[in-house]
Structures are given as structure tokens and as C-alpha cells.
Amino acid sequence: MAETRKWVEPDPKRENWFWPTDELRERAWAADPKIYEEAAADPLAFWAKRAEEISWFRRWDKVYEEEPYAFRWFLGGKLNLSYNSLDRHVEAGRGDKVALIWEPEPPDEPNRILTYKELLAEVSRLANALKSLGVKKGDRVGIYLPMIPEAIVAMQAVVRIGAVHSVVFSAFSAEALRDRMLDCEAKVLITADGYYRRGKLVSLKPNADKGIAGTKVEKVIVVRRAGNEVPWNEGRDIWYHEITKDQPAECPPEEMDAEDLAFILYTSGTTGKPKGVMHTTGGYAVQAYTTCKWDFNLHEDDVHWCTADVGWITGHTYINYGPLMNGVTTVVYEGSPDYPDYGRMWATIQKHKVTVYYTAPTAIRMHVKWGEDWPKKYDLSSLRVLGTVGEPINEEAWLWYFKHIGGERCPIIDTWWQTETGATCVEALPGIGPFIPTVAGRPFPGIRAKILDAGGQPVPPGEGGYLVLEPPFPPSLLRGLWGDPEKYKATYFGEYGPRYYFTRDGARMDEVGNIRITGRVDDVMNVAGHRLATAEVEDALTQHPLVSEVAVVSRPDEVKGEVPIAFALLKAGAQPSDELKRELIKTVDQHIGPTARPAEIYFVEDLPKTRSGKIMRRVLKALVRGEPVGDVTTLRNPESVDHLKELVGYEG
Ligand code: WT7
Fold first, then answer.
1. pLDDT at 497
2. Mutate which of 359, 391, 394 for ligand 1 pocket (most atoms within 8 A of beta carbon)
């Protein structure tokens, strides 16, 4: 089977198996491994018990219901995500507790600190402002914001009134924004003038303007963050501070059905067109709340810092909803980890006494490169639990993180999940363990996973196969793809469905149920924790007028995990040049964003093709990885491979 990364065998002598400290075990929400058996015996009872910990306007009549290709949780239950994140803490007398600490990038700019009471008032004002613009339950609102408190406020305000947010990563291009706004037919967009990144002011508003041209967006709310001058469309654009200024600080939360749509988040599939993943209210709330609490062992005094961007599911669940539903303090950082120097993350942990730090393997590998002298300068003793997410973590990075950041005291919770699962599904629990480098852990209690072979049969322990989830499906698993029910069925329930949800990841499982993820088995890359289809990069590159055909494959990268490598066939008469390479990179920036830039562009005279004319990406992949190319006799043009070998300096 296809594996995006090679692994050494997992530590048979168990030298690198780590266990919770006594202190951690004592404080843990889950410390007895029996919880796994208990939950497995009755997953519905397990989740119903968890659901009782959040606030419902009306209790559910039935916990779970399923039919082929559809399942529902907490039927008949009524709740609101924003009420659960804010009001209930204020009502419980904890309104003065700090909900959010904002760390701006410029080091001399003061923090913004919002208590639960203040955050609730701010959210309510924006919610009322949205209502004044005619936004109603079920309407879609686009959010294209940098990492500022208003990003959290905006998401909360939208779900408060029962509208549906569609957050777009602020580093995505205008075109990527437009695709998403068109697809979900958003009525309003919330954006900002600009923000700071690596010491520079980045202007955002012009992108937003371009991105909504020709869409159904009628009103644009603009947060003044950086104070830069922005183009203005009188009658359409409204300053955030002006529209919220005179709004009442109370706004009753909409009573949402457990299965009402909460938000849409676009993610990459195998084609060039991103898919709108749909998450509903009740199941999402319960799993986001529970996993955040148990994975990071959250208690009232925790300061939780997840370094993701709100534009990704990680930011939705573990910066916004998860921590706030748990009533802890969440840290939002605006900028880059290397500004003003490589110690910024550690300085920030020290400054705010962060207790939980959740980041991506690619970021850890960067810190490994920068060296341990940076974290050594700071007091990191406030940390209790560390987390990683987004891609497989290599042993070296894991051990470095464990030693130099966690002081060999903090467990590393390697959480496997996806945009589609909404919240974590596979991980070790901090009070239970074991914590094993490169092994994510067991399925969360109440979640069932299996490893199947291509024919749909379970494989023996230790053997590679495809990771699937079994019913009852996780409460926060997606309910559909916006506007594309057929694709939903085909993508997730096609190969093994409807009995199994297919994750499209390769994995192995040991006897105990510990799972090691080996990577995507489709044409989806994981570039510095960003999910990207090779087809998306291909689509972008072929927009350049001089490109005739292009193939993109991924290559493993020490820091970023994977990087895209492009093979471009130019149109007749076009000359390859470095200048053209730069232009192609620009094209990718324009159509997707800088995260999708190919690490290498090869100009080729021919691409290896099957007799039916399909590009054989398998051959290209082997070439860039220095792996055996395998049988090329079925190619229409086997001679193309020799030329390519020379081009890439192949020595396999
Ligand atoms: C894909 C999902 C979940 C939020 C961030 C990414 C890979 C995710 C792990 C992990 C190995 C992982 C998988 C998955 N992945 N977490 N702990 N170990 N691989 O969300 O963009 O939807 O990507 O990320 O391949 O399918 P996403």
C-alpha cells in the first residue's frame, strides 16, 4: 500500500514508552484504562453521559440513530454553541475569569485580555449587528480574519444567532476566498484591514474585495486591526467598531436543534475543488468539549494555547469552542513563531504561564533546527500537557519536544483526526498513556476504529492497512458535504461503506489497539500541516498561459513533512527559465496561497503516461523520492522516464 513516509519499526523493547506522572494521574479526568472497555460496551451511554456535562435548552429524546449514509446524535435536543461557550460560565459566577488572551505579533504592543463577561458582551453586540444586516438562522457568513480576538468573536456571534460560519484562512488568496463564498452563497463577510506577520504589515482588505466580486456577499464588516488605508465600497462596507458600537450587549442565543448545521469548513479532497465539510451543533459540541477536556486534562486554572490558525478545524475546535466550552483561558497569537526571534513561542509560554501547548509536528521540526538554546532561555515550568496534530510526527522531533519543551514531565498527546471528524478521535489520554513516539494511541473511548485491507477484511495486529471508523460514528463526524451529497457518499462511504467511514489514511494497530498513522493513501498532501490536493496545485499551475500540462507529486521534507514537486510541460515555443519558474510560483500564490508553492518545478519534454493517456504519478513519485520506479512497460512512452531520471538526478 502507498505510504507517504517510511517508518522504523516501533520500539519492540518499549524503551521509549512513557507513562503519566503520579501528579498527572491524580488530576486526570480519565486515569483508569477500564474506561475503554466500559465505553466500548455501551458507546451511546458513554456519549450521553458526556453530553450531560454541557447545557441543553431541551434534553434529547434519543441518543443516536443511523441509516445507510446518515446518522444523527442527540435527536430532539436543543442547544447553542455560544451559550455553552460563554453564558453558562457567566451564569455560574465565573464571568470575571479570563476567557481569551491575545498576543499581538509586535512585541511592544499590549495584550488584549477578555473575561468571559466581556467576551459575551462583545459577541452579543456583533450578533445583534449581524441581525441588523438581516442575517438569519441558516444563513452563511464568511469569516476572513487574521488571528485577532475578533476572529473568535465572529465565530461565536454567527453561531449565537443560528447562522452558519465558513471561515477562510487569511493567507488564502482572493481566488480561494471567492470559490468558497460562491459555493456556500455567503451573505455577509467579516474581514479586517490587515495584520502583522513576521514584522510586516500585511494588507487583507484588497484580497477580500477581490474575493467577493461576483458573489452573493452583500455586506462586508471590516475590523480595524492594523490601521492601514483600505479601499472602501460605500454602502457595502461597514467598520466593525461602528456597527457594533450602539448594539445592545445582550442577544438571546438561538435554540438550535442538535442536528442543525453549525458551520461549514472547506478542505482539500483529491480533486482541484475544495469540499465544504458540514458540522452540526449537538454532536460537535459534545465531542469538542469532551476531547478538549480529556486530551489536555483541562481544569479551571488552565491556560490553553493551540497554535493553529482559526482557518483550520484545529483552530475552530481547540482555540475557540473546546477551550471556551470548558471555561478555561485560551491564547490567540497573531503572528509568526520566529518573530522577533526564535524564542517567541517560549517567551509567550513564560509570559502567560501556559499550561497546555498544542502545535504541529512541522513547527516542532523547525524548533529542532533552531536549537534547544532558545527554549532554555525561558521558564517553561507552567506546562503540563503537550499536544501535536496534523501529520505523523517522527521520533526525533517527538523526543526533542518531550525533553526540551516538556522537561520530560509533560506527556505528548499525538492527536489523530481530520477536518471531517471535527474533533480528535485517536490519541493517548494524559492520565492513562502510554505515550509512544510516532504512535498516536488508542481510539478515544466511545469511538471504534479498525484497520482493513483493500478487500475490506481486518488485517492482523501490526500490519499495514486502511483506517476506518465504525458505527456508532463519532458524534462530531461530518454530516455531509455542502451541496454535494453524492461526493459525500463516494468519498467516505464508497470503498467500504456504508458500514465503515473511510478516513483515507493508512495505519497499523497493535494488539492493545494503539494506532500508528502512516499517512494519506490518496493524492492529498500534508504540507507543513496544511492539507492540499496535488490536483489543486496542478489546477493552479495550468492556469499559466505557457503551461500545457502539469503533474504534481509530493516529496517527504525534513521540516514540512511533505512538499509539492511539479513537472511542467510547456506549450510549443515557450522557453524554460528561472524567470518562468518565479512566474509559476506567483500563479500558485494567486490561485491558492504561498503554502501551496512547489519546492521544485521541473520543465519536462514529456510526462509518463498510460496507454489511456493518464499521467502515471506513481512513477514521478518514485523518482523524486529515489525509490524503485517499478514496472514501466505499460507506459505509452517508457523512454520519458530516462529523461526524467536525468532531470531529477535519480540514483534509485
Ligand atoms: C489529515 C487530516 C486534524 C486537524 C489538522 C489536520 C493527517 C492529522 C495526524 C496525526 C498522523 C495526522 C491525516 C489526516 N493527520 N493528525 N496525529 N498523525 N497524521 O486536519 O487538514 O483535515 O487533515 O491529517 O492524514 O487524514 P486535515
1. 80
2. 391
CA distance readout (Å), 270 to 120, 504, 608, 639: 40, 10, 20, 28
Residue 42 to residues 48, 291, 304, 326, 468, Cα–Cα distance (Å): 10, 18, 31, 25, 19
pLDDT score recorded for residue 11: 66
> For the chain, what percentages of helix, strand and coil (3-state, to nearest 5) are there?
30, 25, 40
Q: How far is the CA of 523 from the centre of ligand 1 (A)?
A: 14
Does residue 418 have its Cβ closer than 6 Å to ligand 1?
A: yes
Instruction: Spell out the domains of the chain, with CATH numbers in brackets.
Output: 32-336 (3.40.50.12780), 449-518 (2.30.38.10), 528-648 (3.30.300.30)
Ranges of the chain with pLDDT below 70 = 1-12
Residue whose Cα lies nearest atom 10 of ligand 1: it is 416
Q: Is 554 in the pocket of ligand 1 (CB under 6 A)?
A: no
Predicted TM-score (pTM) of the model is 0.91
Q: Are 336 and 470 in contact (CB under 8 A)?
A: no
Q: Report pLDDT for 474.
A: 98
The pLDDT of residue 273 is 82
Q: Identify the residue whose C-alpha is closest to ligand 1 atom 14.
A: 418
Give the residue, by CA position, lying nearest to ligand 1 atom 19.
Answer: 391
Across 44-182, the runs of DSSP E, i.e. the strands, are 62-67, 70-75, 78-79, 98-103, 112-115, 140-144, 164-167
Supply the pLDDT for residue 342.
97
Query: What is the reported pLDDT for 384?
Result: 98
Structure confidence by residue, pLDDT tens digits, 195-235:
999 999 999 999 999 999 999 999 999 999 999 999 999 99
The closest residue, in CA terms, to atom 21 on ligand 1 is 531
* pLDDT value of residue 274: 87
Name residues whose C-beta falls within 8 Å of residue 522's C-beta, 6 or more positions apart in sequence. 270, 504
Find out whether the beta carbon of 317 lies less than 6 Å from any atom of ligand 1. no
CA distances in angstroms from 302 to 100, 110, 355, 362, listed in the order given: 12, 22, 6, 25
pLDDT at 3: 35
User: Is residue 390 lining ligand 1, measured as CB closer than 6 Å?
Assistant: yes
- Out of 167, 417, 478, 491, give the residue to mutate to test ligand 1, the one with the largest number of ligand atoms within 8 Å of its CB: 417
Which distant-in-sequence residues (6+ apart) come within 8 Å of 628 by Cβ?
622, 652
Q: Are 364 and 385 in contact (CB under 8 A)?
A: no
Phi and psi torsions of 218, nearest 5° = -100, -30
Spatial distance between the Cα atoms of 606 and 391, rounded to a whole number of angstroms: 33
Q: Following DSSP, what letter does each residue of 289-353 receive, concatenated?
A: HHHHHHHTT--TT-EEEE-S-TTSHHHIIIIIIHHHHTT-EEEEE-S-TTSSSTTHHHHHHHHHT
Ligand 1 site, residue 389, Cβ cutoff 6 A: yes
167, 317, 389: residue to mutate for ligand 1 pocket, most atoms within 8 A of CB: 389
Check residue 10 and give its pLDDT: 58
Q: Evaluate: CB of 260 within 6 angstroms of ligand 1.
A: no
Q: Which atom of ligand 1 is the closest one to the Cα of 415?
A: 17
Which residue has a Cα nearest atom 5 of ligand 1? 390
Q: Give distance in angstroms: CA of 420 to centre of ligand 1.
A: 10
User: What pLDDT, on the 0 to 100 scale, is given for residue 616?
Assistant: 85
